[in-house]
């Protein structure tokens, strides 16, 4: 869908948890109301995926083709325009963003570098793991920050598992980072191994060694102590080796070298530690950024240097007046900030109203250990604030976060149908990727 060039334009860059919700909701309104600004979504990828489920794509316990939402299809349904491309520059005086040239996988130039004009710009380009310049990480480690990276890792896991079975060899996998990503990936890989055995990969679980390496004293530092402890115990009970207080100094072909201790050997290495925003946000035409490349925003979610540019989600840094530290890079924050802009952006643009301040409500955090277990700490809001939950209830709550995101993209009825089809597919299709 191409927007009417005479209408005012909201350009949303990054169609992740935050950006796709904004484009969908404001797109729907602008489709039915010509006085509303047109919405253009720019993303470097061709399909959206709910990032908190990337570890299941990486392990192959979820089918990528069933879980992704192509932006073109979403744009047609919701009434926004989708522009493929990677933002690399900004010209605030001209109100344009610059997109890098688009290349085909074989290197052919598809679309040369181009510019897109905006009246209001929303930057929600997310984050990636931070290797802090650790030698060897770029060369030897997989990361699972995007749909394509998770898929590439899954391809390699399937190849290595096949080799392990066919040649009766051991397979060692090491993951650096004991946050939610590393913990969830380790559990999912263990589940993959067990399901693969059931599909006729004999003794695979005795051949696979999974190690989770964390530099701090405990896993899941953002969770309460008791959840960290219970998670570590549960991971060890399913056969995962957990190493805390272990700082990686380098990645090599053999594995990970530690600051203090023997090398952890691993033929498959994943870096899932640290968080930083994309590098191009630093020095973006005078916008203020942090050392982790995040754009600094006011409580209104406007960037400190330009009221026409908003930023939210992982790529922004917001410290609320009642908080000491910036809000954490989580899907919950990204979603609530998106809802704030959905509610207020139209009036800000059409009536020049001052955007109200964003108010964060901490509903807690959840971590899922595949089918084995799940833990959650309910935050400062809601009926059961401060409570710790575990098991089926936590698993269900974790699943609900994803399903409610889908309902926001597809609407309640279609979202429910998608959920039902997923459940059916789980029964009808293989539980892991076998192709
Ligand atoms: C494996 C894993 C598990 C997680 N589990 C949880 C969890 O259980 N709970 C939780 O709250 N959080 C979890 N998170 C964190 C959560 O996914 C993020 O906080 C959330 O996705 C941030 O949303 P966002 O909209 O800011 O960015 P994203 O969802 O990351 O979206 C960013 C979008 O921007 C696009 N983009 C990037 N750069 C450019 C560019 N230059 N030009 C154009 N487009 C660009 C990307 O393609 C992407 O579509 C998890 C993360 C991972 C990786």
UniProtKB/TrEMBL annotation:
Superkingdom of the source?
Answer: Bacteria
Q: Which residues does the UniProt record annotate as the domain FAD/NAD(P)-binding?
A: 9-338
- Which InterPro entries does the protein's record reference? FAD/NAD-bd_sf, FAD/NAD-binding_dom, NADH-Q_oxidoreductase
UniProtKB keywords: FAD, Flavoprotein, Oxidoreductase
Q: Which cofactor does it need?
A: FAD
UniProt lists the family membership as follows: Belongs to the NADH dehydrogenase family.
Question: PANTHER family recorded for this chain?
Answer: 64 KDA MITOCHONDRIAL NADH DEHYDROGENASE (EUROFUNG) (PTHR42913:SF3), APOPTOSIS-INDUCING FACTOR 1 (PTHR42913)
Protein name per UniProt: FAD-dependent oxidoreductase
């Amino acid at each position: 869908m191409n927007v009417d060039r005479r209408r005012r334009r909201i350009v949303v860059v990054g169609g992740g948890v935050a950006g796709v919700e904004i484009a969908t909701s404001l797109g729907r309104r602008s489709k039915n109301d010509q006085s509303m600004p047109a919405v253009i979504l720019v993303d470097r990828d061709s399909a959206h995926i709910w990032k908190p489920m990337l570890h299941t794509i990486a392990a192959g316990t979820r089918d990528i083709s069933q879980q992704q939402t192509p932006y073109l299809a979403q744009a047609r349904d919701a009434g926004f325009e989708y522009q493929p491309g990677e933002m690399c520059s900004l010209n605030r005086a001209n109100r344009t963003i610059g997109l890098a040239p688009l290349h085909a996988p074989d290197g052919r130039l598809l679309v040369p570098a181009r510019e897109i004009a905006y009246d209001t710009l929303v930057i929600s380009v997310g984050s990636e793991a931070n290797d802090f310049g650790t030698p060897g990480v770029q060369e030897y480690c997989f990361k699972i920050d995007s749909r394509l990276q998770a898929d590439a890792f899954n391809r390699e896991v399937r190849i290595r598992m096949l080799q392990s079975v066919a040649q009766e060899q051991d397979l060692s996998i090491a993951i650096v980072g004991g946050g939610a990503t590393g913990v969830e990936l380790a559990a999912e890989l263990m589940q993959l191994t067990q399901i693969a055995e059931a599909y006729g990969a004999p003794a695979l679980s005795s051949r696979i060694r999974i190690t989770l390496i964390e530099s701090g004293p405990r896993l899941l530092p953002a969770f309460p102590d008791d959840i960290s402890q219970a998670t570590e115990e549960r991971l060890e009970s399913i056969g995962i080796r957990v190493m805390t207080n272990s700082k990686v100094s380098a990645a090599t072909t053999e594995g990970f070298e530690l600051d203090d201790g023997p090398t952890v050997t691993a033929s498959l290495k994943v870096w899932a530690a640290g968080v930083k925003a994309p590098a191009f946000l630093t020095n973006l035409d005078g916008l203020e950024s942090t050392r982790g490349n995040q754009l600094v925003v006011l409580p209104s979610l406007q960037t400190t240097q330009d009221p026409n540019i908003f930023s939210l989600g992982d790529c922004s840094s917001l410290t609320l007046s009642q908080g000491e530290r910036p809000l954490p890079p989580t899907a919950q924050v990204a979603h609530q900030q998106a809802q704030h802009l959905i509610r207020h952006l139209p009036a800000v643009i059409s009536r020049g109203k001052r955007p109200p301040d964003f108010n964060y409500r901490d509903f807690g955090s959840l971590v899922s250990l595949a089918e084995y277990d799940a833990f959650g700490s309910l935050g400062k809001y809601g009926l059961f604030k401060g409570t710790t939950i575990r098991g089926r209830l936590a698993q269900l709550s974790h699943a609900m976060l994803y399903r409610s995101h889908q309902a926001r993209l597809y609407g309640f009825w279609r979202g429910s149908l998608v959920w039902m089809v997923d459940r059916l597919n789980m029964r009808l299709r293989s539980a892991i990727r076998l192709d």
